[in-house]
Amino acid sequence: MDYLSLFPSASRGKPRFMALAAAVLRQVTDLQALISTMESGFSVASAVGVQLDLLGETFHIPRLPGQTDEEYQTYLQQRLKLYRWTGMNEDVDNVLPTGVTMSDNGDGTVTVTPSDAVAPVPAGISRTP
């Protein structure tokens, strides 16, 4: 946005004032551009390699042996969804991976049915078919 155009016409007629305003506003727009590039550096969706490992360490979710970047990225995103889950059945579809269904048995238990396309469960977590 051209912030200089927001100054009143009385100010626009003063070249030294407008030059000062332009210099100050240039710093602000440069900072805005820097911040927008930094956001992608902290995004699990766009991180790869060491950057992805550092994000996983930040969330205390280590990479499992043999996991590719894509697998680890998906795993991190799924685990992070749990932090936002309300615990209600209505929201469970936002937490479960694609292809996994859950049905409430009405007796305090649920049945979770994975599809064949779901990635294997990491070590330390059990699931029954």
Most strands sheet? 2 strands, antiparallel
Residue windows where pLDDT falls under 50 for at least 5 positions: none
Assembly status? single chain
Total domains, how many?
3
**Range of strand content:** 5-15%
Mean pLDDT score: 81
Question: What is the total tally of β strands?
Answer: 2
Q: Write down the Rg.
A: 25 Å
By DSSP (H or I, 4+ residues per run), the number of helices equals 5
Distance between the terminal alpha carbons, to the nearest Å? 56 Å
Description:
With 129 residues, the protein is mainly α. It has three domains: 3-41, no CATH class; 45-84, no CATH class; 89-117, no CATH class. 47% of the residues lie in helices and 6% in strands. The chain has helices spanning 9-12, 15-41, 49-58, 69-84, 92-95; strands spanning 101-104, 110-113. A two-stranded antiparallel sheet has the order 1-2. The longest helix is centred in the N-terminal third of the chain and has 27 residues, at 15-41. The radius of gyration is 25 Å and the shape is elongated. It starts with 8 loop residues before the first helix and ends in a 16-residue tail after the last strand.
